[in-house]
Amino acid sequence: MADTIFTVRSVTKAFGGLTALKAVTLEVGREEIFAVIGPNGAGKTTLFNVISGVYRPDEGEIYLAGRPLHGLTTHRIARLGVARTFQITRLFKQLTVLDNVVLGFGRGDIDPRGLVGGARRPAEVERAKELLAAVGLKDSAGLTAGTLAYGDQRRLELARAMAMDPTLLLLDEPCAGLTHHEALELAALIRRLKDSGVTVVLVEHNMYVAMGVADRVAVLDHGEKIAEGSPEAIQRDPVVIEAYLGRGEAGEDRA
Amino acid sequence: MSAYRGKWVNALLAGLLIVALAFSFAGCKPKEPQVVKIGVFAPITGPAAADGAAATNAAILAVEKVNNAGGINGVKVELLTYDDQFSSAQAVAVAHQMIERDGVVAIVSGSYSTPTRAVAPIAQEAKIPLVAGYAVHPDITAAGDFCFRNSFVGTVQGLAAAEVAVRDLGAKKVSILMVDTDFGRILGETFKQTVEARGVKVLSIDAYPYGEKDFSALLTKIKGLNPDLLYATGYYAEGAAIALGAQTVGLTCQILGMEGMDSPKFLELGGAATEGIIITTNLNRDDMRPIAQEFLQAYESRFNVPADMVAASTYDAILIVCEAMRVGGFEPQAIRDAIAGLTNFEGVTGVIQAFTPSGEVIKPVQVQIVRDGAFHFFSVVDDPAIITPPN
Amino acid sequence: MISSLYLVTVVTMTCIYIILASGLNIITGYAGQPNLGHAAFFGIGAYASALLTTKAGLSFWAALPLAILITAVVGLALGVISLRVRDDFLAITTIGVNFVVVSVFLYFTFFGRALGLGGIPRPTLFGYNLQKPQYLVLVLAVVALVMALCWVFSRSRLGLMVTAVREDEIAARCLGLDVTRLKIIAFVLGTSLAGLAGSLYAHFMTFISPYDFAFPVSITIMCMVVLGGAGTLWGPVVGAVVLASAPELLRFIQDYRMLVYGSLLVLLMLFQPSGLLGMGSAFAGRELRLAARARGRVNQGG
Amino acid sequence: MLDIENLTVHYGHSVAVSGVSLTVGEGELVTLVGANGAGKTTILRTVMGLHRPTQGSIRYQGRDVAGLRPWVRSRMGVVMIPEGRRIFPELTVLENLRIGAYARTDRDGVAADLEKAYAMFPILRERAGQIGRTLSGGQQQMLAIARALVARPKLLLVDEISLGLAPILVDEVFRAVETLHREGVTIFLVEQNARKALEIADRGYVLSSGRLVLEGTAAELRANPEVKKSYLGG
Amino acid sequence: MVVQQIANGVVLGSLYALVALGLTLVYGVLRILHVAHAGVFVLGAYVGVLVYLPTGSLALAIVSAAVVCSLAGLIMYRFLYRPVLGRPPLVPLIISIGAFMFLEDLYRLVMGPYIKSLPVTIRAAGFETAAVRLTGYQLFIVAAAAGLLLGLWWLMRGTRLGLAWRASAQDLETAAAHGINTDVIIGVCFVIGSAIAAVAGVMVGGYYNQVYPSMGSVPAYKALAVIVLGGMGSVPGTVIAGLALGLAETLTMVWVGTFLPRDAIAFLVLILMLLVKPTGLLGRAS
After folding, report:
1. Which in B136, B197, B270, E144 has the greatest CB count within 10 A?
2. CB contact under 8 A, D98 and E176
3. Would the CB atoms of E267 and C283 count as touching at under 8 Å?
4. Does the reported pTM lie above 0.90?
C-alpha cells in the first residue's frame, strides 16, 4: 500500500434527495486487485459511474497516478487510462466482435491517419485476436456482437476494456451470468492482468470470486464505506456480517 | 421472415420498373403525319394542383375546339400535358422531354413563375416558342425572343390598381396586404409607389405567406388604422379568406383585389363577404363577345367547375399558338414570328392588341366588381401609358 | 457525347441526389442522428454559391469550396444542437430548421425572396463555358470523388468510431471516444456534402428559389437513404437512383404518382425497414433501447 | 399450477433462455435463483406474456397460455411484482392500487383487500394521496407489493424484490411474501439474493446463462456446496 | 385592439390545440410521431363537406366526421403502426409521412384538387363591445374547444378508463401486466384523438370556408411543434402550448411585423426553447 496509484477522496453523489455515495474514500495500490462489495443498491455502480465520469461527483476528488479525474469528461478519463465494463453490457451490437475490440485501441484518439489507413491495422487485428483468445472468444471475431450469448457479451466487454491497455480497470460484476467454472477462469484472467501491470477495481456479487481474487476489499452499504481490509478480515468483520444479513437495527429507509 | 419479405419488395420494385419500361415503349407508336404537337406543363400534383387541373382542362378544351373546327389548315393538334409538380427541377426535365423526345413545335406554360422560368431558357435555346399563360416573373420573357406572356406583368396590374384606387375610388388613406410571392409583392410595391406619388397616404403594408387563411390579426390591425381602401393581392383562396376575415373583424372599407381573385371559387368561398369587392383582371364577365361566353359555358359544363383566370389564360395561350400556326405554318421559327406579329387577336381574356418586342402582351385591364354574387363590369383601364409593359 | 438533354438533366439531378443522400447517410445512417432538414443545407449551399457568383463576382471554382465551407459552419451549429436535443426531439428540431431556413430565403430581400436568385453562371473551364452535357461530366466526376470519400469514410477508423457512437454513446465515451466531436464531425461532413450538392444544383439550374429546398425535399432525401439502406455505402446511391428516376419512370401514371410513392414508402417500411441493401436494420442497435422507451424500461436477462 | 416446458426465448439475436422446464405446484413457493443476466427475469416476463417465447409451452392451471395477451393472463390470476418496482410514477398511491385491482369487479372484495394492504404497510395509507415518484425506494417496493396484493393473485410472480433495499426492508418485504404464501397464494420468486430466497422457499431452481443447472428443495440447495460458493457468499 | 387581438389569438390557439391533441394522445402511449394525423384532420373536413352540404346540419356533419375519422384512426393504428411497434422511431415516422402523402393525393383524386366551400352558418349571436368583437362562429369554436378539452380532462382524471389510460401512458407494459387491456387503451387514443381532429377539421373548414386536399400540410408539422412545446404526451401542456402559439403568432404578427412567416416563428421558438430545456415546456426528464 505504499505505492498508491488510485485515490478516491470523500466522494459524495446525490440524486434528488437520495444520497447514493456518502464521503467515500478509497486508496488503491499499484497492481492491486481491489474489490468493492456490498448489498444491492449500496452505491457500487454509482461509484463506478462517478469514477469513469458518467456522473459528476457532487463533492470529493479522484486521482489516478496523481492526476485529477474529477470534473473531467468521460472520454478524457478513459484516455488517461481508465477502462471499464458495465453491469448490463453495453456493446456496439451491430458491429463485429473484432471491431468492438479494435475500438478500444488508441483510446479513442481521432487520428488523421486513421482516415485513410483503414479502420483496422494488421497489428491491431493480431492483438485483438489475442485478446479475444484470452477471454475465450477466439472463434467469434467475425460475428455481430449483438448475436452473442449473454455470457459471451460480458467476455467481449472485458476484451474491449483490455484493448485500451488501461492503467486502471473497473469491472462491474464481471462474473454475472457466468457459470462457476467460467467465473474461476475469469478470476485467473484477472490475476494475470494484475501481473501484467494493471490495477483492477471490481464490483462483484459472487463472494467466492471477490474474496478469492482480491488483495483488499471495501464494503459499501447505503453509499457509505463500512469496512475495508483483507478478504479474511472482511469475512470476519461483524459490521459486514450485519450489513449483509440485516440483523441490525441500523437500516434506514433508502433505496 | 424478413428476408422473404425483402425479396417480395424487391420483386415489387423490379415489377414496377418493367411495367414502366413497357409503357415507355408503348408510347413509341408510329406517328400520324397530319398532326402537330403542342406541349403544356402545369402543376398537376403538389400544392398547386387545383391550378394545374384548371390549366390542363382549359388546354384540352382549347385543342378540342381547334380540332373540332377541322384543325389548323387540316392538320390536327395533339396536346401533350406534363406535370411539373411545382418544381423547377422537374420542369427542366419536362422541357427537355417535350422538345427532344416528343418534338413539340410550341410550348404553353400552365404553371407558376418558378417552373416556367426554368423552362424559358431551354425553349429559347431550342428555338421553340413558349407562351406563358399566367406566370409573371420578368425573367420568363427576358429569356429571349421565343418567349411570350399572355398575362399582365406585375407592374402593369399594380399601376392599373393604383389608377382605379385614385381615379375611380378616390382613396386617400390605404392599407396594403400582399401575398408573399413574386407576383403579390410586385403588385403591392408598384401600387404603393404609384399611389404615394399621387398623394395617397399608405397606412400599412404587410406581406403574408401563400396559403394563409387566418387574417384576423392583420385585419384587426388594419381596422384600427381606419383606411378608406384596402389593396389586397393574393389568389382566390386568400382573397376569399380576406373577405371573410374582414367581415369577421368588422372591417368595412372598400377592398381592391387583383386577377388572382378572378375565380368563381372566390365568390363561392367568400360568399356574401365578397359583395362589393373590386378587382383588376383580364376577363370581363359582362363581355358579350361569343368567344368569352362560349368558353365560360363549355368549361363549366365539361368539368363541372366554373372557369377561372388560370383556365382562361391557359386557354388563350393555346389559342394564340394555334392562331400563329394558322398564319405562319408549323415551323417553330415561323410560329414565333407569327406570335410576334399578332394584332387585335380576340381571346377569352380580351382583345390582345399586340405583343411588345420583349414578348409582353398589350391588352386593356378590366376592372370588375362583385354584385349579387357575380363579377360585373366596373370600369376599364386602357391608358396605353399604363397597359404597355416597360421594355 | 450525350445527345439527349433530357437524359442529361435526369442524370445530373440523380447525381445531385446521390450526393445529398450520401451526406445524409453519414449523419443518419452511420452516426444515427435523425435529420429531417437536410434540404435546408442543400439550400444553404445553393444560395451561398449563387450569391458568391452573382453578387460577389467570384468564379464557380472559388464559390464552390466557399459554399461548402459556409454550409459546414451551419451544419456545425446543428451538430452542437444535436448534443443537447435527442431522438424524436432532434427529428422535430431538424424539421424546424428546414422551415426556418426556407423562410429566411423567402423573407429577406438579400436572398431574392420568393423571386429566388437568377443569372447564376455555368462554370467556365480554360475559358470554355460548360454547357449541360459538359457540366454533367463535371458532376459525374464529383460524384465519383464523393463516393470515394464515402468509401474511405466507411472503412476508416473514423467511420467505425462514428458508428460506435450510433450503437452506444456511453460505451463509446468510456472507450475514450470524443462523442461530442464525432457527432459534430458527422454533421459537418454530411452537411458539407449537402452544400456541395447545393452549389452543383445552383450552377446547373442557373436560378434557384426557396421552394427548391422545402421540407418535402428533405423527406425525399431521407426516403432515399432509408429505401436503399441506411448505414451502408451503396444503399443511398441505390435509393437516390430509384427515387430520382421514379418520377420519370412513373410519368405514365403521373396523376397517381404521389399515391404510388407514398404507398411504396409505407410498404417498404412495413416489410423491409432496413432498406434494400441493409441486411439487419441499420438502426437495430438503437432498437432495443428505443423499444424499451416505447414500452417502459429495458430488462435484459434476469 | 404453472408448467413450463422446454422454454427458449431470444432477445434480438441472442438467446436469453434455452430449453428451460420447470413447474410450480398449487400453493407452492418456488424460487429461481441465479446471477445477473442469467435469464431469470426473461422467464418471468415470458410467463406474464410480456415477451414472446421462441419455443416451448407455458401452461397455467392446465391451460396453454402462450398465445394470450398479458392482461388476459392477469385476469386469470397471474400477477407480477416487476423488477425495479415499476410503480406508475405520476399516479397517486391510491391510484396505483386501483390499477392493481383494475380487472376486479367485486367492489367489496377490493375494499377489503385494500384494507389488508394498508394493514400490511400502514405507511401507504398515510401517503395515499401522494404521487408515486415522490415515495422512497422502500415505500415504492411496498406499493408494488400492495398493488399485486389487491389484484388477489392466484399465481404471484415476484421479480428481484430485494433489489436496492436496505436490509431491514429486505426482511420486511420477504415477510410480506411469506405472509401471502401462507394465505395460499402460489408464488414464483426470482431472486438474486439466494440466501433470503432459499430461506422462505419450498423448492428452488438455479439458472445460469439461460439454462437450468440445479433444482431441488430449498434445504437441498442451501446445502449444495456449488450453490454455497456461487450464491451464498461462501 | 389588444383585447381583440388576444381574442383572435385564443380562437387560433384553440384550433391548434384541437389538431395537436390527437398527436399528443398517440405520442403519450406509443411514442410515435403520428404525422398522418393531419390526414385524418383533412378527412374530417371532407366528411363535413359531404354531410353538411346536403343536410345543412352542422351537428350531423361533426358527428359523422368524428365517426368516420375514428374508424380511419383505428385502421391506421392496426395496419400502419402496430406492425412496427418497438422499431426505431424513424420507421413509424417515415410510415406516417408516407401515409400522409398517400392521403393527400387520395383526397385530390377522389374529391378533386379544387377548394371546396363549407359555408357553415351558426344561429348563435356574436358578441360585441367596444373592445372586442367575436362572431357566433368564433364563440362556437372557443366553446367547442373548451368543452372538448374539459370533457377530455374529466375522462382522464375522473373515470376508470382515464386511470387505465394514464397508467398505460406511463408504463404500457406494467399496465398490461395489471389487467389493463392496452390494445383497447391505444385504440381509444386513436378514436378520441381522431374524433377531435375530425371536429377540428369541420370547424377549421367552416371557419375559413375552405376545404382542400393539402389543408393538412402545415398543421401536420406545426402540430409537432405544438406537442413538443407542450412536453410530449402532456395533454394540458399541449393545450397551453396551442394557445400560447396562437397568441404569440397573432401578437408578433401585429407588433413585431412579419419578419418571418408565422410557421417559421413557431419552429424558431421551438428550437430556442429546446436548447434551453431539451424535454419540452412541461416535459420531465425520464
Report:
1. B270
2. no
3. no
4. no
Give pLDDT tens digits for D59-100: 999 999 988 999 999 999 999 999 877 899 889 999 999 999
Chain B residues within an 8 Å CB radius of E218: 211
Owning domain of residue E93: 11-224
Chains sharing 3 or more CB pairs under 8 A with chain E: B, C, D
The verdict on a CB contact (< 8 Å) between C205 and B89 is: yes
Specify the CATH class of B35-152+287-359 in words.
alpha beta
Q: Residues of A with CB below 8 A from C166's CB?
A: 94
Euclidean distance between CA atoms B386 and D110, whole angstroms: 87
Specify the CATH number for D1-77+155-160+200-234; select among 3.30.200.20, 3.30.420.40, 3.40.50.300, 3.40.50.720.
3.40.50.300
pLDDT in tens, chain C (302 residues): 335 888 899 999 999 999 999 999 999 999 999 999 999 999 999 999 999 999 999 999 999 999 999 999 999 999 998 888 877 888 888 999 999 999 899 888 899 887 788 889 999 888 788 888 899 999 999 999 999 999 999 989 999 999 999 999 999 999 999 999 999 999 999 999 999 999 999 999 998 999 899 988 998 899 889 888 888 999 999 999 988 887 777 766 667 777 887 888 888 888 877 777 764 444 433 333 333 333 333 333 33
Write down all domains in chain A, each with its CATH number in brackets. 1-81+166-255 (3.40.50.300), 91-165 (no CATH)
CB contact under 8 A, E182 and D71: yes
CATH no., domain C2-271: 1.10.3470
Chain D residues touching residue A176 (CB < 8 angstroms): 35-38
User: Which one, of B288, B292, B319, lies nearest residue B307 by Cα?
Assistant: B292
- C153 vs A contacts (CB less than 8 Å): 115
Cβ atoms of E47 and E64 closer than 8 Å: yes
DSSP string, chain C: ----HHHHHHHHHHHHHHHHHHHHIIIIIIS----S-HHHHHHHHHHHHHHHHHTS---HHHHHHHHHHHHHHHHHHHHHHHHHS-HHHHHHHHHHHHHHHHHHHHH-GGGTGGG-B--PPPPEETTEE--HHHHHHHHHHHHHHHHHHHHHHHTSHHHHHHHHHHH-HHHHHHTT--HHHHHHHHHHHHHHHHHHHHHHHHHHHS-B-GGGGSHHHHHHHHHHHHHH-TTSSSHHHHHHHHHHHHHHHGGGGGGGHHHHHHHHHHHHHHH-TT-SS-SS-TTHHHHHHHHHHHHS------
Domain positions in chain B are 35-152+287-359, 155-281+370-387
> Which residues in chain E have their CB less than 8 angstroms from residue B244's CB?
208-209
Report d(CA E28, CA B10) in Å as an integer. Answer: 35
Q: Specify if E244 maps to a domain.
A: no
Contact D45 C299 (CB under 8 A): yes
- For B89, which of C13, C107, C268 is closest by C-beta distance? C13
Q: How many domains does chain E have?
A: 1
Q: Does E263 touch chain B (CB under 8 A)?
A: yes
- Note the pLDDT tens digit of each residue in B99-114: 988 899 999 999 988 8
The answer to whether D84 contacts chain E (CB < 8 Å) is no
- Chain E residue with Cα closest to B45: E105
Per CATH, B35-152+287-359 and B155-281+370-387 having the same topology is answered yes
Q: Locate the chain E residue with the closest alpha carbon to D83.
A: E174
Asked whether residue E208 is domain-assigned, the answer is yes
Residue D62 in contact with partner chain A when CB distance is under 8 A:
no
User: Chain E residue with minimal CA distance to B209?
Assistant: E261
In chain D, what are the domain boundaries?
1-77+155-160+200-234
Which CATH number does B155-281+370-387 carry?
3.40.50.2300
- At B155-198, the pLDDT tens digits run 899 999 999 999 999 999 999 999 887 788 889 999 999 999 99
